[in-house]
Amino acid sequence: MKELDLKSTVNLMNSIMEFELAGVVRYTHYSLMVTGPNRIPIVDFFKMQATESLTHAQQVGEILTGLEGHPTLRITPIEETYKHAVRDILEESLNHEKKALSLYKELLDTVEDASIYLEEFARTMISQEELHNIEIKKMLRDYS
Question: Least enclosed by CB within 10 Å: which of 60, 105, 113, 123?
Answer without folding.
Answer: 113
